[in-house]
Amino acid sequence: MATENPSGIRLVQMPRQRIALYLVISPAPEYDVSRHMEEWALQSGLLEYPDFSPRVLGWDFPLVSKEQSEQFGLRGYVSCYTVPASFEPACPGAQLDWMEADEYAVLRLKDPFAQPDQSIPAGWNRLHSWVEENGLNPHALAGRYCFEEVVREGDITYMDLYHPVH
Fold first, then answer.
1. Is residue 71 helix, strand or coil?
2. Would you say the C-alpha torsion 38, 42, 48, 49 has a positive or negative sign?
3. Which position has the higher pLDDT, 139 or 164?
4. Contact 11, 104 (CB under 8 A)
5. What is the DSSP-derived secondary structure letter of residue 8?
6. Rounded to whole angstroms, what are the CA distances from 143 to 61, 68, 98, 107, 119?
7. What are the pLDDT digits (tens) for 11-34?
8. Distance CA 28, CA 142 (A)
């Protein structure tokens, strides 16, 4: 269920879902973790699971040391696939966990990879500001995620940014 408002930001309820996740710290973590998880999804049997289409979610991993960041140019990123509750992977390579049901403010960016160093941070700033201005800051973030999801509709690529609220 989604509630739209004039800002283009909508509120959505996400159900509890099982996820398989993996973390990479590197100079290009989004690329590295995506490659790993694509291979894992193939090898694990996830993509052959009957009547299931996984979603791919990702978020920045903030616990990179100052030395890793400044001296080596490293950043962290987590990628996860939603998986069926009963799914048992045929191989290791991803941590299985649960993402609890939650309510999110969602902002959709059109063609986010045209200028990703500008459009994605600007989108996050806009979403964070909107959540704060509307008094929807979460009381606690432990176990809750701000994440992004790439969505393709026809020939158009979007990125949905999700921020937990309340």
1. helix
2. negative
3. 164
4. yes
5. S
6. 13, 24, 10, 21, 27
7. 999 999 999 999 999 999 999 999
8. 26
